[in-house]
Amino acid sequence: MRTGVRGRRRPRNPLRRRSDVVEAWTKVLFTLLLFVGAPLLGAATAWWGYGQAQAIVAEQRAERRHVRAEVVERVSETLPTGELGGQRSYRATVHWKAPDGTRESTTARVPAGARDGDRVDVWLDSRGRSVPPPSDGAEIWQHSATVGSFTAIGTALTVFLAHRAVRGVALRRRMAEWDRDWALTEPQWSHRRA
Predict the structure, then answer these.
(1) Fewer Cβ in 10 A, N or C end of the chain?
(2) 11 pLDDT exceeds 80?
């Protein structure tokens, strides 16, 4: 039966090398960085990205204005020119009344189903050119989640590669130590002279 005293250190193992100790501590550090550091860094980056995106959207809302315009004529009848809010859109000439009462027009993207005479929402910049609408909350969250996810994945990959490099160096050092010790021990076992 074995009895031991708590808190007493284990006796030194003669087969355990310094490289083994370094590798064991590297595993502990690797685990902490992988499961605590990478998610925390990803969350911090996502939070920062959310703040940056909010600032950009606020700037877009300040620079752009929303008008209800009437579709006058399509510029392209055959091919869609892109997507507007997740649906196909076409370029068309639109008219609207300015705040001073004058009638203004521009070429803007309109939904594919819009016909001449339909009223559509158009966003304009300070010069009266058609621009996309400011980003909404879902796009901001998507941007933040993407930035945070890629940061966490990149951090985890970097930690993993660093761990592999340390393990490779530790393995080379361990093999060199074993070779050196075997060169000293082998003549005693085999009774050969070095």
Answers:
(1) N
(2) no
